[in-house]
Write a structure and sequence with these properties.
542 residues, mainly alpha, 6-stranded mixed beta sheet, 22 helices, 6% strand
Length: 542
């Protein structure tokens, strides 16, 4: 790479991350945060809280542990290092840590009960008191308590990042850009849910990009949300962006003038403040019983995300959590259930298992609870066959006998929000099942079974977007015009005709009446059926 200083690489990396985030904001890529579901965010924050807590323990005990690169079970290895270093703990540091934690918890409990004291600056008061005590008692020399010691003062000299380094850091910059944004939004969602407000994710992305690209001229690292600092800020009662402005002003004062006054502050005080602020994240464990009762899938997502973060690291654990959440969506689509519906109110049909005493409709109704796509098309075909067998009251297809009349079976398509080419093909096959009997084609076992039973499928509640796909695929060139209806009631109203005549005839009596009303229906019902003959929109007027 050439004779570059590490600070040059960091500045260029920060600048590149900022530019990438600005481009992401311009392209509105904030939609990616839709994959950060609440269980993923809760699991991520719980796992990150464990990492943050363990990172503060050495300071609370006054010991040092070796730094390790990101690897599997790094958290448990750090715990092992802490346990092995317990005999070397500094008793004075431990006492100061315990007293600080007791003071913070007690003061927050008391202040929480009195509205006047809610804005009491517990952390600031604690830092001032302990700093004065440390200075008077000389805790560093007399008791070996680790303190901040030297604090640099003065603003760094601005410098332009070396753009020649961009090709060398671009890959890492892309990863950091995405992860920094994901971590920021996850923390934002945590506080949004807690305090009942919303955030503009694209604005957050824009702010990160501007912050990174501008601050890179002052030789800083890429910026993102700090878990511990955000919790401390929230615990201090911050409610608006003025807290950020005030904090920035204080940091500026520390950099320019106040820094040396904090040189006697024990490090264990800062760790105590962080540990107490982490309590709210550890309370996420209380959500587990509720999620187990409400949604075992969300329970699994939260647990897997938290364990992934704990067992590996924050970035990798967040990625595993998002992928697992997406995998659960795929599984629920692939292994969709088929429901037998009953009527609980006029034009209101629900799962028969949940309403065992409800009215059973005259025509059997089933609902396939997923869009028909390549992952579940075989399951849809099998579900229709099982429903037909149940209609006939036989144990297997081989026991069925050819009926004298057609039997309608209504398929509620209200869950079919979209489809794909394989979904269209399986619907084409299912629709043509009765036709295959009439033209004596025997090229599929399922076709023969359905034809033998003389079952006619009626499709209800099919969305317009899916019908457009069916029309574009040429499906309406091969199906019967009498098999699609906008509601279940329409399908039931017309189903009686199928038991009296060939369902593939054009219904002469109904077709004559249809011609009288078609113009009026076009206006009254906003008629948009693709079928040139009978359609469910027209049933109740005939």
């Amino acid at each position: 790479m050439g004779p570059f200083e590490p600070i040059d690489v960091v500045s260029t990396l920060t600048f590149t991350v900022g530019i990438i985030q600005l481009v992401m904001a311009a392209l509105r890529l904030d939609f990616l945060t839709a994959y950060l579901s609440d269980p993923v965010v809760s699991g991520f924050n719980l796992g990150a809280a464990c990492h943050a807590f363990i990172a503060q323990v050495p300071s609370l005990l006054g010991v040092k542990i070796p730094k390790r690169p990101s690897q599997f079970f790094i958290l448990f290895k750090n715990i092992g290092d802490i346990i092995s270093s317990l005999p070397h703990s500094n008793l004075s540091t431990v006492i100061v840590s315990i007293l600080c934690i007791i003071f913070l918890v007690g003061s927050k409990t008391i202040c929480g009960r009195f509205r006047v004291l809610k804005l009491f600056p517990n952390e600031l008061v604690l830092m001032i008191i302990v700093t004065v005590i440390s200075l008077l008692l000389n805790l560093k020399s007399s008791h070996k308590v680790r303190i901040i010691e030297h604090v640099e003062t003065g603003m760094p000299i601005p410098s332009i990042p070396d753009l020649r380094l961009i090709p060398y850091v671009i890959q890492e910059a892309v990863s950091i850009s995405i992860v920094a944004f994901a971590v920021t939004v996850s923390m934002g969602k945590l506080f949004c849910k807690k305090h009942k407000y919303s955030i503009d994710t694209n604005q957050e992305l824009l702010a990160l990009g501007l912050g990174g690209s501008i601050s890179s001229f002052f030789s800083v690292f890429p910026c993102s949300t700090s878990l511990s600092r955000s919790l401390v800020n929230e615990a201090a009662g911050a409610m608006t962006q003025m807290s950020g402005l005030f904090s920035s002003f204080i940091v500026l004062l520390v950099i320019l003038w106040i820094g040396p006054l904090l040189s006697s502050l024990p490090l264990c005080v800062l760790s105590s403040i962080v540990v107490v602020a982490l309590r709210s994240l550890f309370m996420k464990v209380s959500e587990l019983p509720y999620l187990w009762r409400f949604s075992k899938t969300d329970f699994a997502v939260l647990v897997i995300t938290a364990l992934s973060v704990i067992c590996y690291d924050i970035i990798e654990g967040l990625a595993v959590g998002i992928l697992f959440a997406l995998f659960t969506v795929i599984l629920r689509t692939q292994f969709a259930r088929t429901r037998s519906l009953v009527e609980i109110a006029p034009n209101d049909y629900r799962d028969r298992r949940h309403f065992p005493n409800a009215k059973i409709p005259a025509v059997p109704i089933i609902r396939f609870d997923a869009p028909p796509i390549f992952t579940n098309c075989e399951l849809l075909r099998h579900s229709v066959k099982e429903a037909a067998i149940e209609m006939s009251g036989e144990d297997s297809v081989s026991d069925l006998k050819r009926g004298d009349s057609w039997k309608p079976l209504i398929l509620d398509c209200s869950t079919w929000t979209y489809t794909d080419s394989m979904g269209v093909e399986v619907v084409r096959e299912v629709i043509r099942l009765p036709l295959i009997y009439s033209i004596k084609l025997h090229n599929s076992q399922l076709h023969i079974e359905m034809s033998t039973m003389k079952i006619l499928l009626l499709f209800a509640n099919l969305r317009s977007s899916v019908r457009v796909q069916y029309s574009s695929s040429g499906l309406y060139n091969v199906l019967s015009d009498n098999q699609f209806y906008p509601t279940i009631e329409d399908a039931i109203s017309i189903a009686a005709h199928f038991t009296r005549q060939d369902p593939f005839s054009p219904f002469p009596d109904l077709q004559n009446k249809l011609s009288k009303y078609i113009n009026a229906l076009s206006t009254e019902y906003n008629h948009s059926c693709f079928s040139p003959h009978i359609c469910g929109c027209c049933v109740h007027k005939l």
